[in-house]
TrEMBL record:
GO terms for molecular function: DNA-binding transcription factor activity; protein dimerization activity; transition metal ion binding. The keyword Membrane applies. InterPro entries: DtxR_MntR_Metal-Reg, Fe-transptr_FeoA-like, Fe_dep_repressor, Fe_dep_repressor_sf, FeoA_core_dom, Iron_dep_repressor, Transcriptional_repressor_C, WH-like_DNA-bd_sf. Homodimer. This is Ferrous iron transporter FeoA-like domain-containing protein. The keyword Magnesium does not apply. Its main location: cytoplasm. The chain crosses the membrane at residues 6-23. Keywords: Iron, Membrane, Transmembrane, Transmembrane helix. It comes from marine metagenome.
């Protein structure tokens, strides 16, 4: 005969287990189902982004390309593209996948969120630049349209992200940008850094280590089949062709020429004075605002007064006050 107490205990255990699994909205089953739906939504949005990128670069979107870009199996990619076709977001022809008008609109919205997030990271946080893209990838699927527009307004509706990519407008318009690959330039050609590709990450980190930023002036000094040597602002760099392929340049119009490189505050010796012309494009976000709050604005007279041991930091007289700046900070001020 079954012990009534034991039977009651077993029934209670099963009841608790069933509740933990199937409790509406909070049970493990429902959490798993929600996570699966969220995963499918993320993959769908990433597929739309990939196909838009193909369209923007005038490449062909394929099943194999989706498989590689999203890191999923070919069977799963086939099912994903099939669902996007059912939703009339994608259409296919002869093995090529293209966005419909609605698919393009949704892709642009995700791209807008991503690039606004990267702009936010560059201007409002101390986040390492190498992490901007990864964090934007993570948060773009969780940011609501209302949060997106609030962020855009707070940032002043920026036109470009920190890599030089245009940010789509709220209405889905994408500005065209006339640039040429750095690798296409020859000795003597000049221009401005207009775009720094952030993938692959290992090459982007090399460009960050070289302290390259959007808006910097450059002049090509020498080219060879395996390298390109150039002057960026006042510093000389030599890059392999693989690295140079990740840089794009806006060339100068006929009759235009680069400004002569400005000296920086770090070049001043004690007793010497100079007038601030600009803060380098390499200085962003909180660091840039701090220097401006100290009075380092175009037209400000600055005098180097004293130096610490080894020449760093240096005390500068700025608008009547002596302020110590490290060499790296002083190199940001032209």
């Amino acid at each position: 005969m079954v012990n009534p107490s034991l039977a009651l205990m077993i029934a209670a255990v099963f009841a608790v287990g069933a509740a933990a699994l199937f409790w509406p909205e909070r049970g493990l089953y429902w959490r798993w189902a929600y996570a699966l739906r969220a995963s499918e939504r993320v993959l769908s949005e990433d597929a739309l982004k990939y196909l838009f990128d193909c369209e923007y670069r005038q490449l062909t979107g394929t099943l194999h390309g989706v498989t590689g870009a999203l890191g999923i199996s070919e069977d799963r990619a086939t099912g994903l593209l099939g669902r996007l076709q059912e939703l009339e977001l994608v259409e296919s022809s002869a093995g090529k996948y293209l966005l419909t008008g609605e698919g393009r609109s949704q892709a642009l919205q995700i791209i807008r969120i991503h690039r606004l997030l990267e702009h936010h990271f560059s201007e409002d946080t101390g986040m390492d630049a190498a992490a901007w893209h990864r964090e934007a990838d993570r948060l773009e699927h969780r940011t609501s349209p209302e949060e997106t527009e609030a962020m855009a307004a707070r940032l002043g509706h920026p036109r470009f992200d920190p890599h030089g990519d245009p940010i789509p407008t709220a209405s889905g318009e994408m500005r065209s940008v006339a640039t040429v690959p750095l690798a296409d330039l020859g000795p003597g050609d000049e221009g401005l850094v207009a775009h720094i590709e952030d993938e692959p990450a290992v090459i982007y980190k090399e460009l960050l280590a070289a302290d390259l930023h959007i808006g910097m002036q450059l002049r090509v000094l020498e080219t060879a089949p395996d390298m390109i040597r150039l002057m960026v602002d006042s510093k000389e760099h030599t890059f392999s062709r693989v690295v140079a392929d990740n840089l794009s340049v806006s060339t100068l119009l006929e009759g235009e020429s680069l400004q002569e490189p400005f000296e920086t505050l770090s070049a001043l010796n004690p007793g010497e004075s100079a007038t601030v012309v600009a803060i380098s494009a390499a200085c962003r976000g909180a660091e840039r605002r701090r220097l401006m709050d100290l009075g380092l604005l175009p037209g400000t007279e600055v005098c180097a007064e004293l130096q610490g041991p080894g020449g760093d930091p240096t005390g500068y007289r700025i608008r009547g006050a002596v302020i110590a700046l490290r060499r790296l900070q002083a190199e940001r001020i032209q």
